[in-house]
UniProtKB/TrEMBL annotation, chains A, B:
It comes from Algicella marina. Belongs to the intradiol ring-cleavage dioxygenase family. Residues 100-268 form the Intradiol ring-cleavage dioxygenases domain. Coiled coil: none annotated. Its cofactor is Fe(3+). The keyword Oxidoreductase applies. PANTHER family: DIOXYGENASE, PUTATIVE (AFU_ORTHOLOGUE AFUA_2G02910)-RELATED, INTRADIOL RING-CLEAVAGE DIOXYGENASES DOMAIN-CONTAINING PROTEIN-RELATED. It comes from the Bacteria. Keywords: Dioxygenase, Iron, Metal-binding, Oxidoreductase. This is Intradiol ring-cleavage dioxygenase.
């Protein structure tokens, strides 16, 4: 019989999978085995350490429910979600960022100029900009699908038991003939990711906080263009330099300014804004 | 503000953890981030692929219970458990192998020569050998803690609802003044690891079987020596060349022979064996 040792076992495990040569499954599996077996060897991992890892994953599984995916949270706080967003950003397009756990694909359609704040307390901000291609050609009819936390850092979907409507603070806008979108809403506040589970324990072990800087979520779509999922942040805002989930990129940050000369923009607004915030999205063509 | 991209994010994530420089926690964490971020970049992992990984872990969590640890099973079938066993085997000592899920630390003490078969059907085999140090000095009083499946490949602990006693087919023997252990038992049969969950899906995706070759489990202890956890296998037995969890090493395989000249061994046996199987264990000193 053939023998295996700590250096030959990696090939033995790969060989045990009868994968199609060159298939994506084979590539992903072999790469994972190479990297994680190397890690285990390089670190000379002990039984106690390895069981610590496996029991940590077990604990993540035990706290997970259809509403709470602790493995996504783990991926977020270790920068994997951000890294996958970065890898999959197309050249010339707005950078991608976290989808997060609160997206609903059936948000209500809203009219340009509507107020998305749904009566929540806080600063009313005019959010506006253009959706274009990378040559700055406007993309009329582009869909701006947005959702956000309120002025206390809470998503209505998190407080449905307290009578909040999960569809509040979210909506789909259709850009006008100049590719413009505009609406007013309440300026969101920072909030924490859940830290009462194993991922929270990990954060505490590294003396890390669980805060995300305030942000607006977006999915931007247009026929023939690759959709982008991203978040927009506010310059100099709290936690914008140390987001717990590494969602911030410089290109996704813009300044909130006092509302000034709003009439000159020519928007018909349902509510008078205190502040204004401009951000243009750029889409790249689909493959 | 500073910016991050797909090449700088790894250091940013490391820096976010305020770990003690040079601590084991830091070493393990940084190493894991280096390897798995590199993997994600090298593979240019897509969102769908990454969510596939996270949902696979979620599914492993959902099927796990205090009695079923799907993450250990995952570690087993991907060779990590075997690799950790190999890394932690001491020079000169018997090679380590899987602890498995069925160990109980309060197995009954048995007298040398007792029958461990507890009336189970199958081949009665005399199991015997010595426990020594690496210079072949016997270790009298060494404890041989053993457990095994029956002649149908089942552990009694798995069939408690069907009236089986979980303490059957397991026991602790104390080696005699020559470091010898000996007992009779039923020759175990192969069995499958659980394959009705996500790990089973992974095995099927790679056209792999879930069988383990028949084996005897052991933990061997002696004061002043490092305990070993291992398994012993039977030469030419089914699945001994393709164990689903990579537990077999050449040094852990020995031949089952017809019982012959048993009287010459000088053992007082409770039951007459059909076959005999000799294996010597070697312990290395504690640190």
């Amino acid at each position: 019989m053939s023998d295996i040792n700590q250096f030959t076992i990696t090939e033995a495990v790969k060989d045990s999978f009868k994968t199609e040569p060159g298939s994506r499954f084979e590539t992903l599996l072999h790469g994972l085995l190479d990297h994680l077996h190397d890690y285990t060897r390089e670190m000379q991992v002990t039984h106690e350490e390895w069981m610590g890892v496996l029991n940590f994953l077990y604990d993540c599984g035990q706290i997970s429910t259809p509403e709470r995916h602790e493995f996504i949270l783990l991926s977020d706080v270790l920068g994997f979600s951000a890294l996958v967003d970065m890898i999959n950003t197309r050249g010339g397009a707005t950078e991608g960022s976290n989808l997060g756990p609160f997206y609903l694909d059936n948000a209500p359609e809203k009219t340009l100029g509507a107020d998305l704040g749904d009566g929540r307390e806080g600063v009313t901000v005019l959010v506006y900009g253009k959706v274009t291609d990378s040559l700055h050609n406007p993309l009329p009819g582009a869909i701006v699908d947005t959702w956000q936390a309120d002025g206390a850092g809470t998503y209505p979907i998190q407080e449905q038991e307290m009578g909040q409507d999960k569809m509040d603070l979210r909506g789909k806008f259709t850009c006008d003939e100049s590719g413009r979108y505009y609406y007013t809403t309440v300026l969101p506040k920072p909030y924490t990711v859940p830290y009462d589970g194993p991922v929270g324990r990990l954060l505490r072990a590294g003396d890390r906080h669980a805060w995300r800087p305030a942000h607006l979520h977006y999915i931007i779509r247009h026929p023939g263009m690759a959709a982008i999922t991203t978040e927009i942040f506010f310059e100099n805002a709290e936690y914008v330099d140390n987001d717990a989930v590494f969602g911030v990129r410089k290109s996704l940050v813009a300044r909130v300014k006092p509302a000034k000369n709003v009439a000159e923009l020519g928007f018909e607004l349902a509510k008078k804004p205190d502040a204004m915030f401009e951000y243009d999205f750029i889409l790249a063509p689909e493959d």
